[in-house]
């Protein structure tokens, strides 16, 4: 039941994003907004995820991990339902923000849930839930435009309330069953994890590993959300129709399934997972070159290359558990890097859109994204070095006497 709950919750972590971006031109035409508002809508996910990275550890401390997941799915369902019936741009943004708040909470709590219930199968279960998240990313991208053409864009946006409600059911069942209905936990961690309390004196910001992880998740997410927002526009500029352009976003997301399945399983078996990043950087280079110089020649190939290159994202999520010794450390690191990493990623959709409007082409946006990949390469090398957060987070003075590590 826990495994089902994790998989269903993961499915809902991106539906609010990729169900809207293929419809931005259609919705913008009806509600009367242009590229600036589209860029803001593209920035909202990363901004919400950043804020919730800060707030979620406190929610977990008060509610426990399982109740926090229920809250996350409830907020996601409410926002997804309401945003389909908004009559103005501000209402659409507010309702989208509510949905993204729920998804931002889910981002933070799923890694420590994996650490808690499946501490001896981190790679396998991480692969499962990241793949489920990828399916929830690509499916809306494929069906958003056809569903809007058949039933209207409002129904197309609101339809994703159904999987969000379904995702809450396993957790509600487990909570109703009480402690006896919960799965096994890591030895010695039965009481500590539900409150995810860090040891006295622990300061995650003092750990160099944490900052490497921030840079890795941040640059990966910056590039990913820039592509989520602008691939359809990029493709329509190249001459594709709206449905075909939206399908390319689905192809981009579908290609990420392969890396979501493979990267976590491979990473936990490698002493130096950075070796997985090298082919990803080569794929980024090929995909951006194709989109820049011959976008209409092979749009599926460029979308597949960029989707496969996004394997640094499942790697970052897997490293949360690979580089921590305890579920409390996993929860703390997850909140820290989601907060600052997604704050960094906010720049992606806005700057790419601004550079495109400023120059009238995609050369400068590609140059900006290429610079981000240089940072990503350094961050991945640093984060993949074998070490643990708990060994670093007290700083130079070391842990207080009697503090657990």
Please give a structural write-up.
Helix 1 crosses helix 7, helix 11 runs parallel beside helix 17 and helix 11 runs antiparallel to helix 18. 75% of the residues lie in helices and 0% in strands. The longest helix is centred in the middle third of the chain and has 30 residues. The protein has 405 residues and is mainly α. The protein has one domain: Up-down Bundle (Growth Hormone, Chain: A), CATH 1.20.1250. It has 18 helices and no strands. It is globular.
Q: Give the proportion of residues in helices.
A: over 70%
Mean pLDDT: 84
Low-confidence stretches: 179-196
The CATH class is: Mainly Alpha
How would you classify the helix and strand content by structural class?
A: mainly alpha
Share of residues in strands: under 5%
* CATH architecture descriptor text: Up-down Bundle
Instruction: Report the order of strands and helices.
Output: HHHHHHHHHHHHHHHHHH
Report the radius of gyration as a whole number of Å: 20 Å
Distance between the termini: 31 Å
Strands, count: 0
Taken together, the total number of domains comes to: 1
Instruction: Tell the overall outline.
Output: globular
Largest sheet: none
What is the CATH homologous superfamily assignment? MFS general substrate transporter like domains
Q: How many H/I helices?
A: 18
CATH topology term: Growth Hormone, Chain: A
